[in-house]
Amino acid sequence: MDDEEQLHPTNRERKLKPFVSALGLDVGRARIGVAGCDGTGLIATGLTTIECKSFNSVVAQLKMIIQERQVQVLVVGLPYSMNGSLGFQAKQVQKFAQRLAQTLQLPLEYMDERLTSFQAEQLLQAENCSPSRNKGLIDRKAASLILQQWLDERRPKQSFAPSSQVL
């Protein structure tokens, strides 16, 4: 197989490995962090941060990303309270996400996003970036953590059972 064939899988290979295109969203009052995944569904990466000026402006920006990436599902982080209950903010996110999914005509799934923004800040600090100066980057990283968790949970578990036992 030459290099060109390795870079561009054939239609037969695509049928063997299902194409996955999900969009992860970290919904906040001022901004929405957006993450996407590679077509294999293995790796999530931050794409952009959308300023929440109006519902219509958010929809317009997401429509472009959805069309470009052939998105099949929205994965939205749900900010549960530390005790596992749905507080006021989580209910607001649900309302927004349901309206968004309906408008974009995409299925919607939720992921527990507790501590993802904190984790994102920790990652930035480890890279010597100031979290207070990089709010949009925190939102993107949080969205990628949410999406990565979703991807990891739906990946089939592989068992590594030995073919023969050694005594």
The number of distinct helices, counting runs of at least 4 residues, comes to 6
- The secondary structure category is alpha/beta
Shape: globular
Which value, in Å, is the CA radius of gyration? 18 Å
Largest sheet: 5 strands, mixed
What is the number of E strands? Answer: 5
End-to-end C-alpha gap:
41 Å
CATH class: Alpha Beta
Main sheet strand line-up? 3-2-1-4-5
> What is the H/E order?
HHEEEHEHEHH
Proportion in helices: 40-55%
Using the 3D structure, state the CATH architecture: 2-Layer Sandwich
Structure description:
This protein has 167 residues and is α/β, with parallel strands linked by helices. Helix content is 44%, strand content 19%. It has a single domain, classed as YqgF/RNase H-like domain (Nucleotidyltransferase, domain 5, 2-Layer Sandwich). A five-stranded mixed sheet has the order 3-2-1-4-5, with helices on both faces. Strand 2 (31-37) and strand 3 form a beta hairpin. Helix 5 (116-126) packs across helix 6. The chain is globular.
What topology emerges from the helices and strands here?
Blueprint: H1 3-7, H2 11-16, E1 22-27, E2 31-37, E3 44-51, H3 55-69, E4 73-78, H4 88-104, E5 108-112, H5 116-126, H6 135-154
Parallel strand pairs: 1-4, 4-5
Antiparallel strand pairs: 1-2, 2-3
Short description:
It is built from 6 helices and 5 strands, in the order ααβββαβαβαα.
